[in-house]
Amino acid sequence: MIRNPIKKLYIKKFFLILLFLLFISCNQSKENNNENLNEKVIIKVFSSLTCPHCANFHEEIILKIKDDYLDTNLVKFEHHSFPLDLAALNAEKILNCFVDKEKKFNFLTQIYKKQKKWAFGSDINIINDSIKKIGGEIGLSYESMEKCLTNKEIEDRILDERISAQKNYKISSTPTIYINKKQYKGKHNYKLFKEELDKSF
Q1: N or C: which end of the chain has fewer CB within 10 A?
Q2: pLDDT under 70: residue ranges of the chain
Q3: CA distance 77 to 163
Q4: Nearest-5° Cα angle at 51, 45 to 54
Q5: CB 195 within 8 A of CB 69
């Protein structure tokens, strides 16, 4: 029996096309999976740096999820400035001096940890000196901090952010916390917050 060479060629081409389509489908599936993996859960915290409850949330929640969620890039943390007084505004100005993200986070952490030492008093100059001392410990120069404190552009940006947050998120108290687009209204308890955070994955 003589085989038809043309028919054999068509069958071969058909299988090659089928394999090619399967290859494309697999690659698209991998790309979609990678896109999903790259989508981070975002924690937005609207806070005033002189707010004791904000300091508590940072210490009891943010620092405890840092290793497993923030440092592994599963979750993105966003601090949104919502200063309630001049001391908080000036601390935000120094925070904005930092370019390095890690140093910025470290300054935020130290500002909260040492809040009782710098945030209260009637003399804003003494408060500013205390803030600058913390900034210096993290690596900022005195000159750069002085420039940030008197920088009108930085001040306007912080105040604009506060106005925008008030308008878009209806902030009535600090901290106001969002996990993606959902506001977290639970207690500042690590276990409860973690349970709510895990629902976002």
Answers
A1: N
A2: 1-39
A3: 21
A4: 35
A5: no
- Contact between 101 and 65 under an 8 Å Cβ cutoff? The reply is no
Which DSSP helix (H) or strand (E) runs through 165?
Answer: helix 152-169
**Two tokens, residue 34:** 């990678």
- Residue 187 is given by DSSP the state -
Report DSSP state, residue 81.
E
From CA 2, how far away is CA 138, in angstroms rounded?
Answer: 85
Report, in angstroms and rounded to the nearest whole number, the Rg of the chain calculated over CA atoms. Answer: 26
Phi, then psi, of 11 in degrees rounded to 5: -65, -40
Which two structure tokens, joined as six digits, stand for 106? 């470290």
Distance of CA 50 to the CA centre of its chain: 20
> Looking at the domain covering 39-198, what would its CATH class be?
alpha beta
Beta bridge partners of 44: 78, 178
Reduced to 3 states (helix: H, G, I; strand: E, B; else coil), residue 174 is coil
DSSP 122: S
- For residue 161, how many other CB atoms are within 10 A of its CB? 16
Q: 165 Cβ partners below 8 Å, 6+ apart?
A: 46, 80, 82, 171, 176
User: How far is it, in rounded angstroms, from Cα 26 to Cα 28?
Assistant: 5
The DSSP 8-state label assigned to residue 96 in this structure reads: T
Instruction: Give residue-wise pLDDT tens across range 86-131.
Output: 999 999 999 999 999 999 999 999 999 999 999 999 999 999 999 9
